[in-house]
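Morning. Coffee machine broken again, so started the prediction first thing and wrote up yesterday's gels while waiting. Chain of 310 residues, entered below exactly as on the submission form.
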Amino acid sequence: MATKKSKSSAKSAKTKTTKPKTAEKSVKKSEIEAPKTNTVEETKVTTTTSEKKSCFKGFFAKKYEEKESILTIFKNHKFYGALLGEVIGTMLIALLLFALSLMGIANVAMYAFAIIAILVAVYAFSGACLNPIITVGMMATRRISVIRGIMYIIAEILGAWLGWLIFNGFHLAGGETAYDVPAMAAVAEGGFWTVTMVELIGAAVIGFFFARAIEYKRSVFTFAAVVAGGMALAVLIGYVVSAAFLGLNSNFVFNPAVALMMQIFPTAGENFGEILGGICQALSIYALIPMIGGVVGFYLSDFAKKLSED
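Came back before lunch.
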């Protein structure tokens, strides 16, 4: 009997001694598992901090279809519809600007409504750039491809030329009773930088408003209203600054395609060098500088948008 009791007591002792082992194992498992949860939390924190630090990640990334290239774009029939839309829209914009140059600033509100109508009508075809300022800004911010932007600019120049033909045709039909054809006044000596700054600021305003209007592309009317408001604001700034402060005779266009049709190039000079210098000056004031201003406006919009994001 004593041996049985000793065996049972030994078994109970074994069971008692084995219980702490399970406790030790659970402790060891908890000690091992605890750091894993901490590492997961640490990785979450590091990822969130890295995301916050890289708020400008993808700032210069493509925002158009990557498959679009010079080899594929001409095979898409929608591209030709877009070009036709740019020609028609720019032609109508040119007619508006020619009329605005004759009628004066009193009718800016009426022309703003006309611009809204044109943008709404053309937006479904090409996005309604209708201005090399905007087209270059779209290319610089990689919203459209380079080949599409170049073809858009060609279409815009063609549209402005067609608008000029129509407007000049009515002028010739009117004879002596008609208004003079709109033309840019020659920039006076020392007025290069003043006219340049007016063009730069107005183009930056138009580029900024267009970049912001793209955010409302689901509502075409809102998009058109924002763009038209930016164009009207640029025209008002141009009129006030050029007429009231600088004493200029409205030497601004804010559209290089239309400016090319308004006789910006000199036709006479003492020698070939003077004529060439005048051509370079006109191109820099009414083409190069406004395009730079449009790019500045687009980048200001994108920069502000990136800073405002979480």
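The radius of gyration is 34 Å. Going to sketch it on the whiteboard this afternoon.
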